[in-house]
Write a structure and sequence with these properties.
The complex is a heterodimer of chains A (222) and B (526). Chain A is α+β, with helices and mostly antiparallel strands. Chain A contains seven helices and six strands. In chain A, the strands form two sheets. Chain A has a three-stranded antiparallel beta sheet with strand order 1-2-3. Chain A is elongated and about 65 Å long. Chain B is of the alpha+beta class. In chain B, 46% of the residues lie in helices and 23% in strands. Classes of the chains: A alpha+beta (222), B alpha+beta (526).
């Protein structure tokens, strides 16, 4: 796609993004879309039903969706990544304690015990983390809900988005998933990242957030 | 109006000499080492030659630096072309400039040079540093930047003619808001002793003292008994430490805030301070991210507080108090000053429920446990005799600390501002406009969930790093927290739709509206 064409499509879809009606794609004038959004009731229901991950992300085009979109979970493959990370750190810590135990107390089995304990805890944690993670693309802001021990809800207004990245590490590439990272000018939690998206999903989310950020009017307050 | 026709200005010529000397002085210690070192590598004349050569080289380099350093203030940017070996051209859009700071130390004052710094948001270092220009040029530059900034800003709001038309002379626009009195300066020196440092020392001291006492006066019959040495030594040492800390920090604060003065222009605050090192800075009102009122234990006792006005200009590293708007003033006066900058209503705090105390109690118990363990291990495995038994006594402090911590928590939801309060040693009250919120974070840890508590943090683009710049409403009821979060979200959206700062109109005219909410404010429309 040429740059011009992309710009045009961004602009047109930005207008649609503002509009709450899903059907009116062709004739949505700017002004009505604006008032529609303002008049919309502010009470946003808590995520009632969680759509299952991959299907809803890939099939629907972002511009045809309604805002506020329902809360979504992550792709289940992200568990593998987290489990892998937990395993690696379990191996490292287990090896260190194993060597230490062997040298100091002459008990190499300590390392094995530590390794097993960390492996189990890490994997359970990964499982619950996946269960707890959800994100919601709402009318004015992005809402992330996550955390096993400390539960956190982060609200990022679209007006405050500085830029959006889609990143894929080696393990993520292997499994075919990606992370979307959102940057604001804030000092703490400046970058908000959503791991465990399908490749197409991450790109779609990136484009969508980009459009919403462009559509949201207001200064960046810096 | 500054003349944009004059382009490509250079730094002051005097700066060549100053910078060369500075550069030579920085390398001087090597020379000193070589000359007066044990091996005596060089004779006196050789040293003299080296010094002369060094000065010549430094002078040459600085001359080229000066030749190649050009800056220019255009209609809407500040351009710098610089670099001796690698050239750099930098353009800074004027409406992105956050702070303009001038500073000069004693030597620079003597030769009449000033360092100018421009800060923008983002980036970890100062975006533009002019070392050095003359005092007159620095003042002119600052004036011109703020004028052109305002002209550029008002073009969009269709007020260009009115602003440009009746532009009063520069001196008249500045109204003095605050001037530090000798009494306040003295008090500032007194209360700026870092109490946290003291508390750590006084806790640590009795633990280590027995062994110290034994080592120092081990032979004497009096000092050999650990209890006696503890009873004697601790107060003396504690007094000594307090004394020295107080003197040092007092003198430091005194020279730092000597002659502090806060003035207000049409769209900015200006401050001057310092004895040995003169600081002078500009805080643009439209860039203000947050107000922070902090009062430490002593200041609270006397009814004093300090106000800092935060912008997003400084990097996380250098929050060196340079944004402090009022170093010390009576609490009412501080609030009044803050209100004169941005109008907000009377604050009445919502308090967290009493059950929140338990969390801090547990936390402090854990800390005490840690201290006891470390002290015990130190006693057992190192040569030092550490009186770890005393550390157990700290348990008594845990509930007291928890209560004090809890008693100072609070938050308030105003029409267009969120106010939060935390801290016992230094109680900090943060006032942030909803409009400035960047992200909102609501979190509840395992322990908080057990008590049905939650915390809400509103993050702004301020500069105080490490959790310094955000307003936190700690340990409130979970349902209340949920409500607070959605309230802030709602008001944020309203503020964004309403435009940058609704109360800005009242600020444009620096009238006598310093009293609380006397000025016209459209912010009360919720």
């Amino acid at each position: 796609m040429s740059r011009d064409a992309e710009d045009r499509s961004v602009a047109s879809e930005a207008e649609e993004g503002r509009d709450t009606g899903p059907a009116s794609t062709d004739d949505a004038p700017d002004s009505t879309g604006q008032t529609d959004r303002r008049a919309e009731p502010r009470s946003r229901p808590e995520p009632a039903e969680r759509h299952t991950d991959a299907d809803s992300l890939t099939e629907t085009q972002p511009d045809a969706e309604e805002l506020p979109a329902p809360a979504r979970g992550l792709d289940s493959r992200v568990r593998l990544i987290w489990a892998l990370r937990a395993t690696v750190s379990a191996v490292v810590v287990g090896a260190i304690t194993g060597v230490g135990g062997m040298l100091v107390f002459d008990r190499p089995l300590v390392g094995v015990g530590v390794f097993l304990a960390l492996l189990i805890v890490g994997n359970i944690h990964a499982w619950y983390r996946y269960r707890r993670w959800s994100y919601q693309v709402r009318a004015d802001s992005l809402l992330l809900t996550r955390g096993v021990f400390t539960r956190t809800k982060t609200v990022v207004p679209y007006v405050r988005i500085q830029h959006v990245d889609a990143s894929r590490g080696p393990a993520e590439r292997l499994l075919g998933i990606a992370t979307t990272v959102v940057y604001t000018a804030g000092s703490r939690g400046a970058d908000v990242s959503i791991p465990g998206l399908t490749q197409a999903g991450a790109e779609a989310l990136q484009t969508r957030l980009k459009r919403l950020a462009i559509a949201a009017e207001g200064e960046d307050a810096v | 109006m500054s003349d944009p026709g004059v382009s490509h200005q250079r730094l002051a010529q005097r700066s060549i000499g100053y910078r060369s000397l500075e550069m030579a002085a920085r390398l001087g210690w090597i020379l000193l080492f070589v000359t007066f070192g044990s091996s005596q590598l060089l004779a006196a004349w050789q040293t003299g030659l080296l010094i002369a050569g060094g000065l010549l080289a430094a002078g040459g380099y600085q001359f080229v630096f000066w030749r190649r350093f050009e800056y220019e203030l255009t209609e809407d940017t500040f351009d710098i072309r610089s670099g001796v070996f690698s050239r750099r051209t930098r353009e800074i859009p004027l409406d992105r400039v956050q702070n303009v700071d001038l500073q000069r130390n004693v030597f620079q004052q003597a030769v009449g040079l000033t360092e100018v710094r421009l800060e923008t948001a983002g980036g970890s270092t100062t975006e533009a540093t002019l070392r050095f220009v003359t005092e007159a040029e620095a003042a002119r530059l600052r004036e011109a930047i703020s004028l052109q900034k305002r002209a550029a800003g008002s073009e969009s709001t269709a007020e260009a003619e009115s602003v440009a038309g009746e532009q009063p002379p520069a001196e008249e626009r500045h109204e003095t808001l605050f001037e530090i009195s000798p009494r306040e300066l003295g008090l500032l020196g007194l209360i700026s002793v870092d109490l946290r440092l003291l508390s750590i020392l006084t806790v640590l001291l009795p633990l280590v003292l027995p062994s110290v006492g034994r080592r120092v006066g081990g032979e004497g019959p009096l000092m050999s008994a650990p209890l006696v040495s503890f009873a004697l030594g601790a107060p003396i040492a504690a007094f000594f430490i307090v004394f020295v800390t107080a003197i040092v920090s007092g003198v430091f604060t005194l020279t730092n805030y000597w002659g502090f003065q806060l003035r207000r222009g049409a769209e900015e605050l200006l401050y001057d301070r310092g004895l040995l090192q003169r600081f002078s800075g500009t805080i643009p009102l439209e860039k203000v991210q947050a107000f922070a009122i902090s009062e430490n234990v002593l200041a609270r006792r006397f009814g004093y507080a300090s106000l800092s006005v935060e912008t997003a200009g400084y990097g996380p590293g250098d929050s060196s108090g340079s944004q402090s708007a009022v170093p010390i003033a009576q609490r009412d006066r501080v609030l009044e000053l803050a209100r004169s900058v941005d109008s907000f209503e009377e604050i009445s705090f919502e308090r967290p429920p009493a059950r929140a105390r338990y969390r801090y109690f547990l936390r402090y118990l854990l800390v005490v446990g840690g201290v006891v363990t470390v002290a015990y291990l130190a006693n057992r495995f190192t040569g030092f005799a550490v009186a770890w038994q005393y550390a157990v006594g700290l348990v008594v402090l845990a509930p007291i600390g928890a209560h004090l911590k809890w008693a100072n928590l609070g938050y308030a939801v105003l029409d267009s501002h969120l106010v939060t309060r935390t801290g016992f040693w230094t109680r900090e009250t943060r006032i942030i406009p909803y409009f400035r919120v960047q992200t909102l974070i609501q979190s509840s840890s395992l322990l908080q969930r057990r008590r049905n508590l939650s915390s809400v943090v509103a993050d702004t683009a301020g500069s105080g790093g490490l959790g310094g710049s955000n307003a936190r409403a700690m340990d409130i009821d979970a349902r209340e927290a949920e409500e607070l979060r959605s309230t802030i979200e709602r008001r944020f959206q309203q503020a964004v739709e309403r435009g940058p700062l609704s109360s800005r109109r009242s600020r444009r005219t620096p009238g006598p509206d310093i009293g609380p909410s006397e000025g016209p404010s459209s912010s009360g429309s919720v």
